[in-house]
Amino acid sequence: MAGKNNRILLWRHGQTDWNVVNRFQGHSDIELNSVGIYQAQLAAPIIAGMEPTAILSSDLSRARVTASKLGEIVNMEVLVDERLRETNGGHWEGKTGAENRAADLENFVRWIDGNDNPAGTIGESRSQVAARASAAIDEFLGDKENQLIVVATHGGTARCLIGHYLHLPMAHWGKIGGLSNARWSILQTSPKGWHLAEHNAGSILEPVFGEESGADVPDHVR
Q: Has 86 been annotated as catalytic?
């Protein structure tokens, strides 16, 4: 376990056009839309008030731009690491949840239900995502203490990290609620290891778009 009194703030990127229509983004480098930029700008001062000690980010632009809004306020460099990327979705990337169900129902439903099969046949499994993303965080933390590291990442990656650090059975990772765009969860060290101190926190309640790229699109955004 990392040093004492450490916290990891997992911050999902702001909204993209693909989020709104429930299109699987994965490694596709989709930019924030105007709402996503606003969401990041709204959340950044709140996180800045928590006095972060470091900012890490996925290398994909939607996460990097989200992280940059915080970096500008706290005058801190954003440390970019591709291991914090979203799940490689293989053949599912660029397609909506409905399209993936129609084309690859058995594999897609197994994956949505929490199995460790590779996404989109040639993509990544949840265990692979958890391993690479947690390695990036663990390497940065090392033996440091009294840290609050902000990790600008993605919804699927955040869920894998929470499941990993809480030592939950993988079949139960799906019970962790999704992160809305530009909202965050906080993991904190305790005598018994990591625990979940906050989940899906933020300033304004938002729907969870792109939930594993398998959820239905809410009626009000169709």
A: yes
